[in-house]
Design goal:
InterPro entries: BACK, SKP1/BTB/POZ_sf. By secondary structure, this protein is α+β, with helices and mostly antiparallel strands. It is 52% helix and 8% strand. Strands 2-1-4-5-3 form a five-stranded antiparallel beta sheet.
């Protein structure tokens, strides 16, 4: 790829890993156009499969836009991302970036389990015995404190966290008291649950909407975003709160590959969706009619030429 650019001013990208290597060479030898082309390719190919390579490249080369795209995908797909096989091999700064987020699409207990799995592998890399306290040391106390233990369900805290041995007795008791009394413990662990990502639909975003009756349509976003009632995982929706006929799934197309998000629309927003659908269907009919007229004129012109 580099030789093609140097001698022929041509660029052919063969994959994410190869493009990252080319970007390194382009930065080293000051091929600015090649470097920009590499970054554009990486930004257009942000996906779960290569998410950690891309995020690390964004950090190494100080590419803020690429970093933002990667973090957006991680926030929307946290469960899938942290359960990837290569999650255990990520650098600590990448793991810390995930733990610092206030919005993640995963339950705290699942995040804790995967972080401990990462810490176990970090102990192996540091060539120290894998114990609960060493796992905590491998992660580092300031970063270990980013896990929000008080937000974990009480029975999961008792069966997963306490039995793991990573917390000391003087840390466990205040958290158990918090479950019973609601009084916040004087510990560094946040009691504020992480929010689930809210998908905002802009005026120019094409999305697929599927309602509870399995009716599929394409929708151009309204002037204000739809409200997501719950994530696609662990949905707890009271029946008397959200009418089933207006509970739907919304999935992004060609944006970040994020999972389907559930949302609730009120009567006004539902009417706006229907109005936009009618307008969209009208535009499609006009486009088809224009294409037919253009084809007809071309045929007639060639016939009478």
């Amino acid at each position: 790829m580099k030789q093609q650019y140097i001698y022929y001013d041509e660029m052919v990208f063969t994959g994410v890993a190869g493009t990252i290597r080319t970007l390194y060479a382009a930065r080293k030898y000051c091929f600015y156009d090649l470097g920009r082309a590499c970054v554009n390719y990486l930004e257009n190919n942000v996906c779960i499969e290569h998410i950690f390579k891309l995020l690390q490249a964004a950090l190494d080369f100080h590419e803020d836009r690429l970093k933002t795209l990667c973090m957006r995908l991680i926030i929307n797909n946290t469960f899938e991302v942290i359960h990837r096989e290569d999650f255990k091999d990520v650098k600590k700064d990448v793991l810390v970036m995930i733990l610092e987020q206030d919005v993640l699409n995963v339950r705290e207990i699942e995040l804790f389990d995967r972080v401990m799995h990462w810490a176990e592998n970090e102990c192996d890399r540091l060539k120290i015995t894998v114990t609960a306290m060493n796992q905590r040391i491998a992660l580092g106390n300031p970063y270990f404190n980013l896990i929000r233990f008080p937000t974990i369900l009480s029975h999961e805290f008792a069966t997963h966290v306490v039995e793991s041995g990573v917390l000391k007795t003087d840390e466990i008791i205040p958290i158990l008291q918090y479950y019973i009394t609601g009084r916040k413990p004087s510990l560094p662990y946040s009691c504020q649950s992480r929010r689930r990502p809210c998908l905002e639909v802009g005026p120019l975003d094409n999305v697929s909407v599927t309602y509870s009756d399995q009716t599929e349509m394409t929708f151009v976003g309204p002037t204000r975003p739809l409200r997501r009632a719950a994530s696609h995982r662990d949905i707890h929706v009271p029946v008397n709160v959200l009418p089933s006929q207006q509970l739907g799934l919304i999935c992004e197309r060609q944006r970040s590959g994020s999972p389907p998000a559930r949302f609730h629309v009120d009567d006004e927003e539902f009417s706006l969706i229907q109005e936009n659908m009618r307008h969209l269907q009208h535009l499609v009919r006009e486009r088809n009619q224009f294409a037919w007229c253009k084809m007809h004129m071309a045929v007639m012109s060639s016939h009478y030429r």
